[in-house]
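Revision sheet: structure tokens.
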Amino acid sequence: MSRLVIVSNRVADLRASTQTGGLAVALADALRERGGVWFGWNGEKEGETGGDPTVETIGKVKRVAAPLSPQDVADYYFGYANSVLWPLFHYRLDLVDYRPAFFAGYSRVNETFARQLVPFLKPDDLVWSHDYHLILLAGHLRRLGCRQRMGFFLHIPFPPPDLLHASPNHAELVDALLDYDVIGFQTHTDAGNFKLYLAEHTPAVEVGKNRFRVGERTVLIDRFPIGIDAAGFAALAEDADEEVKIDLMRRQVLGRRQIIGVDRLDYSKGLPERMKAFGRLLERHPELEKTVTFLQIAPPTREEVDAYGDIRMELEALAGSINGRFSDFNWTPVRYIHRPVSRGKLAPLFRGSQVGLVTPLRDGMNLVAKEYVAAQDPDNPGVLVLSKFAGAAEEMRQALIVNPYDIDGMARQLHRALTMPLKERQRRHAALLDHVTRQNASAWLAAFLAALKPPAGQGEARGAASKAGHEAA
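Predicted:
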């Protein structure tokens, strides 16, 4: 069995006791089974040129953590990755802040990562790069002589060609992606956008289902929808701490229901829109006063980028406005938390909330939607209200699907969710839970690795070529 080499912007903590997400657990488990390497930035700024990576061996796995210089962090991470690619790939051209120095830094860091990774590679490794930070990595590895099978998975959306053209480097980005052997997307829409770009702007030729000939190579381009550890999250949901139990009992005594939203504080998540929808719900249904609350948990993220400070101020103003209009001395309609909350506390909070409100303006998948479903009590489940622009909506059709730009429409669906009969709630939840359980993190991992596996008869030849390339390098 080939070793697995995971490359991500931030290197994970591979000690099982510290894992906080089902996806990280699935990848870490695959590494432990196969042996291999997890390589990425350690989150630290060091010197003027970065520094050498540190290596920690945990069983059959090497954790390789590399520092970056302050300039690299500014240009690569806050610059091109999060001020150009993030807004561009989320269809927000108005927030793209393109500067030539950003792309130079992005390329520089991808090249540095490639050079630092090469000494840890073996000829028959499977190299799997994750997300928009590392689009250029395979190309730099190829130029260093690496011939291993390389896969790339994009966790966020991929825009249509006319939007992608907003980046002056769009052709370089696509050419770099084609240096991978397998390119994975979250949805049919994302994969379709990439294929459309290939058809309109490149000489790549489709030679089979999801397979494209690029020069002398064949590249697989497909949808691999990501999942969660549904069983593990359900177990967390049933084990509430005392603080959560007291909150739940208080709401039960007062006859109050809860709508919950959990998102990083990001302009792509549609947070102001959902806050406005909740306010509209209270305006249209005064009978709901003192009977329903909205809990929005929005931990900070990328606060160095100006757009994130703007969204924070807008959200805080909206929460204050709604509470000022509707609250009473014993009822605060909006509870807004701007700090991280542990998964162990989130899961029972999901279970104790009658509506899960997941309304991004654009999202790759959105695992919160799946976690909300997994956390519910099947005998008395809550209702998922889900944006049509979340990747999860492609699969989770039994949710109440909404347009997050339609405030009145969201308010109507919130009211429908709060008044939905038990049998309909059970029917919808059963179908959603079946999907979330079957299409879990392990199924996603197995599907991608099966696609990345060398075609029969090519493994030895590729390994020999890679070894020769390393010796030449």
